[in-house]
Amino acid sequence: METVTGARWPGAARVAALAGAACLLTACGVKQETVRPPAVRPYSVTAILAPGATAALMTAILDGHLRDAGLAVAVDHAASGTQALKALAAGSTDMVVAGQSQLLLARDQGMHLVSIAALGRQPLEAGIQQASTGAEGQELALARHAGSGGVPADEYIVAAVRVASAEHDGEDLRAFMQALTEADRTMHANPAAAAALLTGPATSSATKRPTPSASNSAAHGARGGGAKHGAKAKAAAAAAAAAAAAAAKPAAQVAAEAAAQAASRARARAQRAAVEREISESPVPTQAEPYGYQRPASWETFARWMYVSGLLHTDPTSLSQPYTDEYLTAQGF
């Protein structure tokens, strides 16, 4: 018997190996199937908070984490927390991102909703004021009490769904939280890149595309032919026309426009810096408290305070639990 050593193959072994390779390449004797990408299901989210309060959600959308998980998420923003949560209860949207107090008020009104995750925290007064635009009653009363006389100063930003969805759409909810968990890790790994993604490309005079050299331009024109040459000529003519129009403007107008552009760039840089700082300072999830974790004591204290203050009409302890951690992703830390 011959032994195969190093790179030297005996004749018979080489023939057998080549035959096997050819069979693999041509898929002989094997039924070929077309591999299709997983189906993507539309999923609607209504946020009654500023977009900055949903950084991981927006990152998961922009970076493609949610689409990879099979969910095509569309986010709408609502002015009234009452109307958004009523729409959720009626099945007009799949999820509402709202304040913890808003969810407790909705449940007190008989809506069968539950929080599946805490997406962050926000000042109580700011959240209620944003959520109660155009609304009356308990929301405004809560806003007036916020931050005084033992009232909690902040609250969870929660992802609320219908109780029926939590019971029957578990696969989608787990995929949703897995995508947000991955997005949160991405954000913490590179806060600067995450801030750039969330705020859009910075407008800066220092980030202009370099002008190609004469030799490169000539080579490019030779490869591109007459059509590209014609397009470049049109672009040059348009640039010349724009320059002529700018030259015709009064100096004061040119200066005012330049100042406005500079101010806009400064605001964009400040916004990006603020988002980067917020990401850097946000808590890093752990095995014990993964992304989306909701502390039971926070819910108990908050609900009890609202009930004692007369903001809730039904003792919250007589209702089902307002939150669940069933869909959180604790692996990988």
How many runs of DSSP E, i.e. beta strands?
5
Give the averaged pLDDT, no decimals.
Answer: 74
Q: Could you say which overall geometry the principal axes of the C-alpha atoms support?
A: elongated
Amino- and carboxy-terminal Cα gap: 52 Å
Number of helices: 13
Q: Biggest sheet, strands in spatial order?
A: 2-1-3-5-4
Low-confidence stretches: 1-27, 129-137, 202-224
What is the fold named in CATH at topology level of the domain at 41-188 and 288-318?
D-Maltodextrin-Binding Protein, domain 2
The second-level CATH architecture of the domain at 41-188 and 288-318 is 3-Layer(aba) Sandwich
Reported for the largest beta sheet, the result is: 5 strands, mixed
CATH class of the domain at 41-188 and 288-318: Alpha Beta
Question: In terms of structural class, how would the helical and strand content be classed?
Answer: alpha/beta
CA radius of gyration:
29 Å
Order of helices and strands: HEHHEHEHEHHEHHHHHH
